Amino acid sequence: MPEGHSVQRTANWFNEHFKGQKIKVDSPQGRFSSDAKRINNRVLVKARAIGKQLFLDFDNDLTCRIHLGIYGKWRYSEPFHNEIVGEVRARFYTKAALADLRGPTYCQVVATEDMVHLENKLGPDPTNPDPRKLNQKRFIEKVSKSKSAIGLLLMNQSVISGIGNVYRAEILFRAGIDPHTPGSNLLMSQITELWVDSVKLMKIGVQKGAMVTREDQLAKRGISSERNYVYKREGFKCFRCKGTVVIEVMASRKLYWCPGCQN
Ligand SMILES: [Zn+2]
Known about the structure:
By secondary structure, this protein is an alpha+beta fold. It folds into 2 domains: about 5-120, N-terminal domain of MutM-like DNA repair proteins (Alpha-Beta Barrel), CATH 3.20.190.10; about 135-255, Helicase, Ruva Protein, domain 3 (Orthogonal Bundle). About 30% of the residues lie in helices and about 20% in strands. The protein has 8 helices and 10 strands. It has helices spanning about 5-20, 35-40, 110-120, 135-145, 150-155, 165-175, 190-210, 215-220; strands at about 20-25, 40-50, 55-60, 60-65, 75, 90-95, 100, 105-110, 245-250, 255. An 8-stranded antiparallel β-sheet has the order 5-7-6-1-2-3-4-8. Strands 9-10 form a two-stranded antiparallel sheet. Strand 2 (about 40-50) and strand 3 form a beta hairpin. Helix 1 (about 5-20) crosses helix 7 (about 190-210), helix 4 packs across helix 7 and helix 6 packs across helix 7 (about 190-210). The radius of gyration is 20 Å and the shape is globular. The protein binds zinc ion. Zinc ion (ZN) binds near residues 260 and 261.
């Protein structure tokens, strides 16, 4: 499943290629045909990403809401030349660019005003601008009031949007926090650090298109296969303490961490 940085990249792609333009929308597969007609030939006002969801706002007060889920995929190309389109749920295109959506969990057209309710339920997204630090404040409040383990809170989309399994493990490692620590037991400075580091790492993820989290790899060009501290490194030596990275299951997702560094 994509983490928030990749959805932000999709929003950036849509803004770069389609924002302010009248775009064509159809459903080669047929399952999205009636919704596609409602936004076809309308101007895209803006594409936005909140966590794992993409919102495409059109000039007729309708929004197309897309969640890729586990199997969804985007494909971008030049406008099409008689290619196979069997599984394409939704196609967005102009004369200059084309985006095909396959296999999403959701792809629906809804009234833009109805989105407000949904957006209020989603937790703050570290990839979105936060000049007044309101998102940071919301995150700190939610975490500090909860007795749930921080390893669970970071995966809860109402606490923070867009963090998945990779960033969860890496952000906790970088902060030296045991994933089992209840949110309410963390210091304010620790919770703030988790937010600030999420903003930093996901910004790099949006730029690089990869979840690079090792400090010594961040400034490097290119993407190393050894870009993470603990994610998928169970049984190997920790880069920092030389202890062993471990794996366990937390809320049915694999959790990677280093007991030597995170305590
Ligand atoms: Zn370690």
